[in-house]
Every structure is written in structure tokens, then in C-alpha cells.
Amino acid sequence: MVLLKYVRRFLESEDGPTAVEYAVMLALIIVVCLLAIQQVGTSTSTVFSNTANSLGT
Questions:
Q1: Cα→Cα distances 57→12, 22, 44, 46, 51, Å
Q2: CA–CA separation, 41 and 37 (whole Å)
Q3: Comparing C-alpha atoms, which of 35, 12, 31 is closest to residue 23?
Q4: Per-residue pLDDT tens for 12-43?
Q5: pLDDT-derived band of residue 7, with 50, 70 and 90 as boundaries?
Q6: Spatial separation of the C-alpha atoms in residues 27 and 16, rounded to whole Å
Q7: Which DSSP letter does residue 14 get?
Q8: First-to-last CA distance in the chain?
């Protein structure tokens, strides 16, 4: 009977969905950060390549 009470309380709790929502938001933030870092790296590489070419090295 006690086990059934704990299972029922767990299923009615809203902590689980909240944790899933936070995990999804964290995953989206990580994806956005990785894309931004990739874009900055590409832009920086282009700038350094253009500078090296203008210096004639």
C-alpha cells in the first residue's frame, strides 16, 4: 500500500516534466553556442587568410 502511494505521488508530481523541459532548453542552447563558435572560427580563418595573402607570405 505504501509503494502504491509513492508511485501515485511520483506520477502526479510535476518535477519530471520540468526537468525534461530544462534538458531540452539546455540542448538547444548548446546547439546555438556550437553554431556560433563555428561561425566565428570560419570568419576568423577568412580574416587571417586574407591578411596573409595581402602580406604576400
A1: 68, 50, 18, 15, 9
A2: 6
A3: 31
A4: 776 666 778 888 999 999 999 999 999 999 99
A5: confident
A6: 17
A7: S
A8: 80
